[in-house]
């Protein structure tokens, strides 16, 4: 009970058209336009629900909101009390915000880094399924994100002790993976000098879908920041591209699920094979 899954991510972006081109030509993801207050926002259609990624035009790039889906109004009230007891000020979302997210209830607070974290009840289905490129199912949903920050311990306290995420595994001394359902992880927290989203992951239906996206990325000149490979801990096969906002977008499939008998452990090296970085890997030896 409580938080059920990662629901959506909102980004402030300086080049919505570049994002739309990447999503459409490389990943086959449609984008619709909607009003958010007085402004227009681009909504990426990853599955049958309203959206999973919102792109807000802005003078600078960065996270705008991180949205988690909560089981019920009762659970929302319970988590609100836990947050308030831990010293977080929880606020109600506006009517416009609830409408945009397709939520029946919406509350938010600011995390130790300064990011807006939202808890939403309800998801609006607006289509039977998203259109995809010929030859495969393509993107099936939003997977996870990795949040890097100098306030690692405070974030661990928030997600593990207050929001009741469970630790799945880790790499000593500064990289931790957490789950809120059977999926191996929905968020990872990493030590870094500057706060940022290291990457956001889109789930794909099969290795063939990932491979076709890899071919389209190369054909379209999309910068591949981390080559095709398989992770050691969740066993997912993926590659990464550098998105127009400057961080990584992971294109993956095949991550494992874990049960209640799972024992958290240090999984050692990062990958079974592949995943060669175009630039230096900040997590090759995680910072203390």
TrEMBL record:
Q: Extract the PROSITE patterns matched here.
A: EXTRADIOL_DIOXYGENAS, VOC
Q: What domain of life? A: Bacteria
Give the coiled coil ranges. Answer: none
Which keywords, in A-to-Z order, does the entry hold?
Aromatic hydrocarbons catabolism, Dioxygenase, Iron, Metal-binding, Oxidoreductase
Iron: present as a keyword of the record? Answer: yes
SUPFAM superfamilies linked: Glyoxalase/Bleomycin resistance protein/Dihydroxybiphenyl dioxygenase
Under the heading InterPro entries, the entry gives: Fosfomycin_Res_Enzymes (IPR051332), Glyas_Bleomycin-R_OHBP_Dase (IPR029068), Glyas_Fos-R_dOase_dom (IPR004360), VOC_core (IPR037523), Xdiol_ring_cleave_dOase_1/2 (IPR000486)
The Swiss-Prot or TrEMBL record lists the needed cofactor(s) as: Fe(2+)
Pfam families referenced in this protein's UniProt entry, alphabetically: Glyoxalase (PF00903)
All residue ranges annotated as the VOC domain in the record: 5-122, 141-254
Family statement: Belongs to the extradiol ring-cleavage dioxygenase family.
Q: What is this protein called?
A: VOC family protein
Query: What is the organism field in this record?
Result: Kribbella lupini
Top-down, what is the taxonomic lineage of the species of origin? Bacteria, Bacillati, Actinomycetota, Actinomycetes, Propionibacteriales
């Amino acid at each position: 009970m409580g938080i059920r899954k990662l629901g959506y991510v909102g980004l402030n972006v300086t080049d919505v058209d570049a994002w739309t081109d990447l999503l459409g030509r490389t990943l086959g993801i449609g984008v619709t336009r909607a009003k958010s207050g007085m402004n227009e926002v681009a909504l990426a259609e990853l599955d049958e629900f309203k959206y999973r990624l919102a792109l807000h035009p802005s003078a600078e790039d960065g996270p705008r909101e991180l949205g988690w889906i909560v089981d019920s109004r009762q659970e929302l009230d319970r988590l609100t009390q836990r947050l308030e007891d831990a010293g977080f000020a929880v606020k109600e979302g506006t009517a416009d915000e609830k409408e945009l997210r397709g939520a029946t209830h919406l509350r938010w607070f600011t995390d130790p880094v300064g990011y807006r974290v939202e808890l939403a009840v309800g998801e609006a289905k607006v289509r039977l399924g998203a259109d995809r490129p010929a030859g495969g199912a393509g993107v099936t949903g939003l997977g996870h994100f990795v949040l890097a920050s100098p306030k690692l311990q405070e974030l661990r306290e928030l997600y593990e002790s207050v929001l009741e995420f469970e630790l799945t595994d880790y790499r000593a001394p500064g990289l931790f993976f957490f789950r809120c359902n059977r999926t191996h992880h929905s968020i990872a927290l990493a030590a870094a000098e500057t706060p940022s989203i290291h990457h956001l992951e889109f789930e794909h239906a099969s290795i063939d879908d990932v491979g076709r996206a890899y071919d389209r990325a190369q054909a379209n000149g999309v910068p591949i920041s981390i080559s095709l490979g398989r992770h050691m801990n969740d066993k997912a096969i993926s590659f990464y591209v550098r998105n127009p906002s400057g961080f990584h977008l992971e294109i993956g499939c095949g991550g494992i699920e874990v049960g209640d008998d799972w024992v958290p452990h240090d999984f050692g090296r990062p990958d079974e094979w592949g995943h060669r970085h175009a630039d230096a890997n900040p997590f090759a030896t995680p910072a203390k």
